[in-house]
Amino acid sequence: MKPKALILQAHGSNRDFDVIEALTLAGADAIGIPLNKLRMNKTLLADFQLLVLPGGFSYADALGAGKLLALDLASYFANEISAFVESGKPVIGICNGFQALVKSGILPFGEKKEERRKNDAKATLTFNAQGHFECRWVTLKPISQKCIWTSGSDEIITCPIAHGEGNFQTHELFPLSSFIEQDQVALSYTHADGLPANGEYPVNPNGSVLDIAGICNPQGNVLGLMPHPENYIHAWQHPRHTRGEMRGSGLKLFENGVKYAKQI
């Protein structure tokens, strides 16, 4: 049986149908549900085996990237989201969805609702180091073997980014060494040949610490990333496909999530 994937749709989300297509190709039964509809029936969430917070400009990012969506998650769905995460079900937040996961406290440590405020501002996604919106293709290297979305994969991923606030930074009190030891760095920006970016722009397009492009929670079932792997799932989507450059599809990431969801 195909696992059911819920793609959460908020006002301004614009990559929801891209993710639905990626998950469908990966073998899931994917459906988009507007946030307001879910708010009227919170129990719907328990019927799904996989949850996606897609990219876009939720609520027009009026108060900052992902902030209002994060408030919705923390205010209206805190118990349901916590139960979903703690059950081990796969969750992925892409771009604006990643920002919402971080700003609601679900990432990086996945604390329970009553503990999240203690860790406010220890990690954040802030303005790009270059001070402007970045829209370009990047190369990603899967790092974490704990993260169910990247586990078992060492293939380079090529996909676009499109964000103004994707710079992952940590407070001086953030336990960065234990964060690394817990294998929570899921994806990093690299050169096309897989060599580390070492902070070099535009290989690292936003200035993120340690070239971090994506992180997971300690349990490994929640992934947040700034790039858009859902926008390179067909060979013809690569900007240089007519020249034979078609490596690095993002589909493998979704296949890993769906494969894991089938076991739930």
Beta-strand proportion: 15-25%
Termini distance? 12 Å
CATH topology value = Rossmann fold
Q: Based on DSSP secondary structure assignment, what is the total number of beta strands?
A: 11
Q: Spatial order of the strands in the main sheet?
A: 2-1-3-4-11-10-9-6-7
- SSE pattern: EHEHEHHEHEEEEHEEEH
Q: Identify the overall geometry.
A: globular
Helix content: 10-25%
- CATH architectural designation: 3-Layer(aba) Sandwich
Number of continuous helical runs: 7
CATH H-level homologous superfamily name = Class I glutamine amidotransferase (GATase) domain
Number of domains: 1
Report mean pLDDT, rounded to a whole number. 92
Query: Biggest sheet: strands, sense, closure?
Result: 9 strands, mixed
Main CATH class:
Alpha Beta
Regions with little confidence, pLDDT below 50 for 5+ residues: none
- Going by helix content, strand content and strand pairing, the class is alpha/beta
Computed Rg: 17 Å
Q: How is the topology of this model organized?
A:
Elements: E1 4-9, H1 16-25, E2 29-34, H2 35-40, E3 50-53, H3 67-76, H4 78-86, E4 91-94, H5 96-103, E5 123-126, E6 134-142, E7 157-163, E8 167-170, H6 176-181, E9 185-190, E10 212-216, E11 222-225, H7 251-261
Parallel strand pairs: 1-2, 1-3, 3-4, 4-11
Antiparallel strand pairs: 5-8, 6-7, 6-9, 9-10, 10-11
